[in-house]
Amino acid sequence: MKEKMSIHYDAEGDYIEVRFGEPTEAYYEDLGEDTFERRDEKTGKVVGYAFFNVQKRKEKIKDIEVEMPVSI
Fold first, then answer.
1. Phi, psi of 9 (to 5 degrees)
2. Among 1, 16, 26, 43, which residue is least crowded by beta carbons within 10 Å?
3. Please, which residues have CB within 8 angstroms of residue 42's CB and are 6 or more apart in sequence?
4. Spatial distance between the Cα atoms of 36 and 66, rounded to a whole number of angstroms
5. Of 51, 57, 15, 4, which Cα lies nearest the Cα of 31?
6. How far apart are CA 70 and CA 62, in angstroms?
7. 47-67 CB burial, b ≥16 within 10 A, e <16
8. CA-CA distances (angstroms) from residue 15 to 9, 23, 52, 60?
């Protein structure tokens, strides 16, 4: 079965959240520079990412690169 990827942008909070598969109970690991990795609490598997201060990044024209947990 193929996993779905969900992308949510919150303009008021100025963050983007990318989630893989169905929502699970998870925690965030700080990767630095307002980038967080979302990990499943039970398995430790990467289930998403969160990026804060999106508008600030846009002004700096900074790319965000993270490892994908699944093959495309």
1. -115, 130
2. 1
3. 24, 25
4. 10
5. 51
6. 24
7. bbbbbbebeebeeeeeeeeee
8. 6, 18, 4, 16
Quote the tokens at residue 67.
């490892």
Instruction: Please enumerate in sequence order all residues whose Cβ is within 8 A of that of 45, keeping only pairs 6 or more positions apart, or say none.
Output: 39, 69
Q: For residue 19, what are the β-bridge partners?
A: 6, 48
Query: Dihedral of CA 22/2/46/40: which sign?
Result: positive
Residues of the chain below pLDDT 70: 1-2, 58-66, 68-72
Chain segment 38-57, per-residue pLDDT in tens? 999 999 999 999 999 988 77
